[in-house]
Every structure is written in C-alpha cells, then in structure tokens.
User: Fold this.
Amino acid sequence: MSSDSEYILETKNLVKEFKGFVAVNDVNLKVRRGSIHALIGPNGAGKTTVFNLLTKFHEPTAGHILFNGADITPEKPADIARRGVIRSFQISAVFSHLTVLENVRIALQRKLGTSFHFWKSEKSLDRLNNRARELLEAVDLAPFAETVTVELPYGRKRALEIATTLALDPELMLLDEPTAGMAHADVDRVTKLIAQVAKGRTVLMVEHNMSVVSGISDIITVLTRGAILAEGAYAEVAKNQQVMEAYMGTAHA
Assistant:
C-alpha cells in the first residue's frame, strides 16, 4: 500500500486493556486522506484512549496502526511525530510566559532540529520570524504577536496551539476537544479556523460540541464502551437510533 491510498490512517482490530478493563475494543478506523473526521461518543467511550494509541502514549494490547500504508504500531511517539502525525491536547500546551510569536518560533525550531540549542543567540532564530508571522496570520493572531501568552483569552490560546501544531508541518492533525470550555464566539472562530487549516491536510478530532461536528466534519465515527457504534456523514449518524440511545438525548446539548 502506498501513500497514494485513499486512507491516510487505518487501525486494524485495535484493542487496549487496562488491568482487565477493555477501554478500546476491536476498533477498525479508516480516516480518508484530506478529510475532517470526527471521533465522538459519550464520556468514557474510549475516544482519548484511541488518540493515545495512535500517538503511542499507550501501547496497544492487540491490533495494528497503519499510516500511509506503513505499520507504525512498534514505533515510538517521536518517530510517529516525525512522520507528520501531530497532536494537540485537551489542556493548553503553550509556554505561558513567552510571547505568541516566540511560541510559534519554538515549534518551527523543532523542525530545524535545533530545539534544544537554547544557548543560540536570538538573532540566529530571526530567520524563522517570517514563517512564524505567516502562521499567526493564518490563525488570526497576527495582532497578538508580541503579547505574552498568559494574557491571551482562552479561545486565542487554543488558536495559538493550532498555529504551533501547523508549525510542525503535520500531514495528519489530531485535535483533542479543540473547542472545550470556550465561549460561543470563540467556538465559532476556532471552528472556522479548523476548516481553514484542514485545506491540504487531514484532521482527526475528538469533539463534544455537536454544532462543531455537524458544521465541518466529513465523516463521524461514534464510539461507545470502546467500540465503534456507527459511522458516516452527520445527517446519517444523527438519525441512528442506537446513537441517540447511547447519548441518552444529550447529543444535541
């Protein structure tokens, strides 16, 4: 299988057990290249565990993970990131006391292979500034370039996370609840941002907000009790009686 395959990511019979508890149960997931694919389900359904398996923060108990046709199951997190599978987390993962521009520049520096050369003069990193500013422009943060990150509103911090993720040049972006805890205006802004940055790459996201999922997802996979319950376009999945029962009426809350 080559990187020209229709699917950029596949899992085959993926299982994760924790001391006898099956958190992920025989999951066969296929993520189409160039799509926005949402992974949804009630609390405890296994969504974040799947993300942890894909990025090798957890080792699978059984099964395989394929990226661009290659079996990446034995690989370490850093190897998978180097392949272009880049993840953002539920909690903010930026340097609060650096400026917005400096945060993006550090992410760009990682791509240069000089991420730990903190003794280098700041001027040696100036060549990264233009690209950093382009990324800030892409996520509507250009006016905040010199702002110390701790002073950013929460929604803007999540936008900065997306900018730092983009700086690592992902082929596949894994977004873990990108709109969690946001005010309505921030949700709208970040939703548009995800749709914008998805052009030319693939996005797999865990998201609870059904208005976000319905607005930008091409395909939705519903997990419950660690297994796939349903899959398809939002209109199709939303009518599924089993999905409605799994959410107990909360899917549209």
About this structure: Residues 91-169 form one domain. DSSP finds nine helices and eleven strands in the chain. Residues 249-253 have pLDDT under 50 and may be disordered. The CA atoms of residues 113 and 248 lie 48 Å apart.
